[in-house]
Amino acid sequence: MENQQKAKLKENIKEKLEAIKETIASYELLTKPVAPDNAIGRLTRMEAINSKSMNEAALKRAKFTRSKLERALVKIDTPDFGLCRECEEPIPFARLMILPEADLCVKCAENLGG
Predict the structure, then answer these.
(1) Where are the extended beta strands (E) located within the chain?
(2) What confidence tens digit (pLDDT) does each residue in 8-60 have?
(3) What are the b/e assignments for 78-105, b being 16+ CB within 10 Å?
(4) What does the pLDDT look like over 81-91, one tens digit per residue?
(5) CA-to-CA distance for 51 and 33, rounded, in angstroms?
(6) Residue whose C-alpha is closest to residue 91's, from 68, 99, 7
């Protein structure tokens, strides 16, 4: 990978990290406990609990993505960054711009995914 591409990718990762941090903060607000004494009615309370559960799952995914992006930012200067962990071929730059945390090329991802 060329230095110019690496610099562009680093900037992209940093932007994605900032965005995911804002997303995590939003989900953390949405996952606060639903107070049992809240007089919103039984059905509405169940909806609030269900919504909280879905937001908790989204929060967990967002934190996992943040972790993968942070790992990619640390590994970007290593010689094996951008190489598929299965076939060891270079992952296309366009794929890394979309998914900088990707450690599989499209072909290997499809083979492992089903």
Answers:
(1) none
(2) 999 999 999 999 999 999 999 888 876 666 556 666 777 878 888 999 999 99
(3) eeebbbbeeeeeebeeebbeebbbbbbb
(4) 999 999 999 99
(5) 11
(6) 99
Q: 90: helix, coil or strand?
A: strand
From CA 48, how far away is CA 36, in angstroms rounded? 11
Dig out the tokens for 3 from the structure: 């230095």
**Residue range 59-80: mean pLDDT, rounded:** 95
CATH numbers and ranges of domains, the chain:
3-113 (1.20.120.910)
Residue 83's φ and ψ, nearest 5 degrees, are -100, 140
CA–CA distance, 76 with 70 (Å, rounded to integer)? 10
Burial of 12 (0-12, 13-18, 19+ CB in 10 A): middle
Both structure tokens of 110 = 């499809």
